[in-house]
Amino acid sequence: MSTAGPTQGAAAPLGGSDAYTVSQGGGDFAAGPSQGEMRPPRGGAATRAAAERGGKKISRRPVHGVLLLDKPLGWSSNDALQKVKWLLRAEKAGHTGTLDPLATGVLPLCFGAATKFSQLQLDADKEYAATALLGTKTSTGDAEGEVIAVRPVAVTVADIEQVVPGYTGPIRQTPPMHSALKKDGRALYEYARAGIEVEREARNVTIHKLDVALARVDTGKLAIDMIVKCSKGTYIRTLGEDIGEALGCGAHLTRLRRTATGDFTVAQCVTLEALEAMTEEQRLACLLPVDALLPNHTTVTLDSENAGRFLSGVRRRGNWPDQGMVAVYGTQPHALLGTAHTTAGELIPGRLLSPLEITQSQTQQAGNQEPAGAPQASGTTTDSREKVNHEQ
User: Fold this and answer.
1) Residue 220 lies in a domain
2) For position 351, which CATH number holds?
3) For 212, phi and psi rounded to 5 degrees?
């Protein structure tokens, strides 16, 4: 396969991401507010990460692929990203679909060329398991806020069965004040911290599945356990509050765990603790290939000459039906070139890997043949594992 062509990457950028953070080299930038459960980052984890780094300089390297992290409790999504980026010594990284510090679960981390396709995960449906305590309303809609109302609880299973249909399917949701959505250039949580409540426009979201059951928390108080499958942009905190209001007693979220995003599930995830206990080779073996982000794309394979032209941003002609999402591969060797769409027999380039990224990905995959006894994604390790110092 010829790799002649420009190295700038995409011919047609995907545009802004509203829950996507990219870190390249020593700098970070966040592109817009979150999709779903997002709260302002807390200083504790960031301060801890900086202290652990201790000024130690590491040698960065190109890393390409997707790591499915089971985000731990108390960490912001960006702090978790920076920790894994440091463990992999990666040059460029980004996360998709921000989780609150109080939330755990599936957080796809994209490295290198995979960051070009992260928008697909932002747009994917999400699944959550959550618990909301009935009878107590807080300023933030979760356990971090101050209690602002307490009401008696007299909720039955029949009450829940009556309420749930109203929160299934397409619904309108007003974003919470304690979120990172922007209003006149400022995050909503900045207004909230100043004691100012601003008008927020309700948004259309879809609840594909909602299972709600009565439960009791450790204190013996009544709560509801929720299993939610929803579209991007859904605030589970707000959903819990709204259901609590519909039940006549109010509620606030006490537990939130993302169990799936798109085709990725929590069963595929690895923990930070497990990653820290691995050798560098074992960590790299946890990476999924870049095209793991493209499971629903139609596959087109080009010969060497057409692959080189495609990488240069030149449209190709063939007997292809119209398709909106196409993953394009080259031969010699078999490698992902990028995405495209087909119209009237033309293969039109979208997001492209650079020739250098293709070469680096092939080299990485060739060196990532998992040795016998290496840990699976669950994070289990062997006795021969190398203990990594808890530094950043």
Assistant:
1) yes
2) 2.30.130.10
3) -125, 130
Identity of residue 260: A
pLDDT digits (tens, 9 = 90+) for 311-343: 999 999 999 999 999 999 999 889 999 999 999
- Residue 75 within a domain: yes
With 0-12 / 13-18 / 19 or more C-beta atoms within 10 angstroms meaning exposed / middle / buried, residue 181 is buried
Question: Do residues 301 and 202 share a domain?
Answer: no
1 found inside a domain: no
Q: Give me the amino acid identity at 92.
A: K
DSSP-derived 3-state class of residue 112: helix
Q: Specify whether 263 is catalytic.
A: no
Same domain for 29 and 114, yes or no, is yes
Pair 293, 110: CB distance under 8 Å? yes
Residue 55 has what pLDDT? 55
307 found inside a domain:
yes
Residues 252 and 267 in one domain: no
Cα torsion angle, 19, 326, 310, 1, sign? positive
Report the C-alpha gap between 67 and 44 in whole angstroms. Answer: 24
Phi, psi for 315 (deg, rounded to 5): -65, 145
**Helix boundaries (H) for 226-292:** 236-246, 272-276, 280-285
Q: Are 69 and 54 in contact (CB under 8 A)?
A: no
* Domains in the chain, number: 3
Instruction: Point out which residues pair with 24 in neighbouring strands.
Output: 27, 92
Picking from 34-38, 91-95, 360-364, which range would have the lowest pLDDT averaged per residue?
34-38
Catalytic residue among 18, 70, 79, 100: 100
Domain span at 351: 292-367
Alpha-carbon span 363 to 356, nearest angstrom: 11
d(C-alpha 357, C-alpha 10), whole Å:
12
If 0-12 CB within 10 Å is exposed, 13-18 middle and 19+ buried, where does residue 325 land? middle
